[in-house]
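Progress report, Aim 2. The chain analyzed during this reporting quarter is listed below.
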Amino acid sequence: MKELVEVIAKSLVDNPDQVIVSEKEDNKSVVVELRVAPNDMGKVIGKQGRIAKAIRAVVKAAASKNDKKVIVDIIDVD
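Predicted structure tokens for the chain:
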């Protein structure tokens, strides 16, 4: 899942070298944390969160075959 989020995020932002994706896994869930440059935050979230919802929907669909719950967190880096 980490690679999928990374590919999607790098294609959206102006500074793909500043995209950082980390993954934490426990029994039934995986938390994917996405960090981007502050000026790219709007591009990843989108108007009214539409792009963020779309990223989460794609990751959820990809994770359904693994029978794990995947949570995508977009972390604000200051």
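Helices lie at 2-12, 41-45, 50-63. Strands lie at 20-25, 29-35, 69-75. These observations will guide the mutagenesis work planned for the next reporting period.
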